[in-house]
Amino acid sequence: MAQDSLHRYLFDGVSVRGELVQLSDTYQQLTSGKEYPAPVKKMLGELLVATSLLTATLKFEGSITVQIQGDGPVSLLVINGNHDQVMRGTARWQDELPESASLHDLVGKGQMVITIEPEKGERYQGIVGLEGETLEACLEDYFARSEQLKTRLWLRTGEFEGSAKAAGMLLQVLPGDENKEDDFDHLAQLTDTVKNEELFSLDAQDVLYRLYHQENVNVYEPKNVTFKCSCSRERSASAIAAIDRQEVEKMVAETGDIKLHCDYCGADYEFDSVDISAIFNQTGPSTGTVH
Ligand SMILES: [Zn+2]
């Protein structure tokens, strides 16, 4: 199968749009940073697929963060993806987790926060309670409330020929045709028949042909999906520069250096007293020029 990619498609004469995403490397790289227990890894995979499907609908440059917070043993799951389908994410958990735990066993009582951040313009945040049994149901609930468009999602994770796979699909009624429920329900029933093995092993065109061979499907140019963290030493330095200088110097005096850890990719950035004075002398208030 080709690289990790996302396909968007439309049906001739039916006001429904679709998306199909198939991930292998992105999922493996995203989950290789920590020793995730199996059920957490599975949920991160589902959330990764969901975020990819959501970011594909962005009509501007920017990013979407989907965050699940709760009072259960898994307190946080978060995935961030941008208009270029560059993804990153992480999870926090405690205790031993049962292999076959449900969403509610893992997260407990909680909520899903979806933050849409355009590079230019105001950010939008939507919050839904985790009332659905599955992540799919919770997201369908979000779409019903926020966009008032009938939407179905299919999120799958598993293994194929020894490698971890995550894949999924989305169907949504096009705005203005909300009364075409029969067409939508028919396509959703066809999509329900998709097998994990098909999603994990077949090319997108073949998956779509198997599901919808009686329909005319127009598929857009696919987009590659990749894992990459946007953290850097420079960004960490500007985060330090934003803290009070005396506070920072006190911390360095106590511990010898300042360590910043990126939760998304596991990278560590260390700054000793020389680095710290360089940061503040570059960015601190000007005290006059010395010639
Ligand atoms: Zn990072």
UniProtKB/TrEMBL annotation:
Top-level taxon: Bacteria
Localization terms from the record: Cytoplasm
InterPro entries for this protein: Heat_shock_Hsp33, Heat_shock_Hsp33_C, Heat_shock_Hsp33_N, Hsp33_helix_hairpin_bin_dom_sf
Alphabetized GO MF terms: protein folding chaperone; unfolded protein binding
GO cellular component terms given for this protein: cytoplasm
Name this protein carries in UniProt: 33 kDa chaperonin
One annotated GO biological process: protein refolding
Claim: Disulfide bond is one of the keywords in the record: yes
Family, similarity comment: Belongs to the HSP33 family.
Disulfide bonds, paired cysteine numbers: C229-C231, C262-C265
